Give the backbone structure.
Amino acid sequence: MFILNPQSGTPIYRQLIEQVRRLVASGQLAAGAELPSVRELALEHAVNPMTISKAYTMLEAEGVLERQRGKPMTVAARDRAQAPRTHRLEQLEGQLDHLVLAARQLELTPEDLIKAIRRKWSDK
Amino acid sequence: MFILNPQSGTPIYRQLIEQVRRLVASGQLAAGAELPSVRELALEHAVNPMTISKAYTMLEAEGVLERQRGKPMTVAARDRAQAPRTHRLEQLEGQLDHLVLAARQLELTPEDLIKAIRRKWSDK
Amino acid sequence: MFILNPQSGTPIYRQLIEQVRRLVASGQLAAGAELPSVRELALEHAVNPMTISKAYTMLEAEGVLERQRGKPMTVAARDRAQAPRTHRLEQLEGQLDHLVLAARQLELTPEDLIKAIRRKWSDK
Amino acid sequence: MFILNPQSGTPIYRQLIEQVRRLVASGQLAAGAELPSVRELALEHAVNPMTISKAYTMLEAEGVLERQRGKPMTVAARDRAQAPRTHRLEQLEGQLDHLVLAARQLELTPEDLIKAIRRKWSDK
DNA sequence: GTGGTCTAGACCACA
DNA sequence: GTGGTCTAGACCACA
């Protein structure tokens, strides 16, 4: 369900947060949907439970998830439907800015980027 | 010459390393070219000299820069010309992987990304 | 575990780097072995933590050590076993070249060196 | 006459000092012998004259060389003959200590070192 | 508990 | 003028 990579530069809890946010924004995790338990996820990805727990807690504080005693965490009701396309794109702003800066400094063209993106998209 | 943002999540010295690497790979910093002195850069960006120094030291260890005592650091000879396009693109692999994963999870299309990239490219 | 001498011409962090490299090459520090924490080493040798940290960081960049956040640094997996004798000897090339040059200029004989080495070896 | 390597870790002026000291100790540079001029050496090794000059000045302070106005520097009279073997060996103490420590940490044997030395000796 | 980043500032080595 | 090393100390991020 989630792709967590402890080697990657970005902290594990942050990877998890981002992914939940995105799946919720896209509606793949609909309002009310249940998330895997802390323990489950921790085991599956061989990660410290505290790391998962931290991500869940922050997502709760953010209003993305809801916690009900004794039950699994669920996607909060307020995020009921798929967010509009432009709003979803905004989540990539930072990444895109960084990418374009890097590509320019490498003297690549927009077409280089576009080809690379198409390739990667069809690959997976 | 360099764009350093202390606010951005990534450490300053790492931003500098990345940018030097890219300018060298693209040939904008040619072999033998002198880099600004540690103090100069530190002043210009209101950053501690050690932060700049750390970046330079790591770039030397990596073989991108060369140190001659008492003189400014220079671009190492082995990186003489512009690296081939594919090699330059490789430096963006990680970023591109991450971007595509994020876009998929947001249920965006490749076209959404491409439009965004073209827009950002012409903006700056 | 390590012998650090602040008086010796060579910088402390460099002494540490060399020793770790050698203990790893010889297998005395096996793959996965944990290194003492930065603070521990710093205290033990009455040195600033940043000095130790610098060495660890460079050893990580070099691929000798691995960092897992929140945990002690470990010997990287790729250096799993004792390096072959010839490869270990290569680490002394520079020193040996220098020694032989010096001895020749002093008009000493190889036998002078050999006697001195045997003596020092049994001494310690 | 001298072997100066700007890439080597050790500073150039120090390399020069060591070599002069050794050639004097061995008698290859006898009392009264003239040294090449600063300018000459600097040109020959493509080195800053100040670097050579610094070495000469320190050797003078040390009493190894003598400076006479308008004439080339000469080997001081007090070092008239070849120093006794043990005294010459002492100049290698530091190097030998370091070598033996390194070899031990690499789990090499004295025989490994000795073979390597014999090989290097006959090579050049 | 682990290590990382950064600052301010001293002092050194080299050319 | 160049860069290198080290300290003392603050604050952060992660597990």
User: Anything to note?
Assistant: The helical segments of chain D are 12-25, 38-45, 49-62, 85-90, 93-105, 110-123. Chain D is about 55% helix and 5% strand. The two ends of chain D are 15 Å apart (CA to CA).
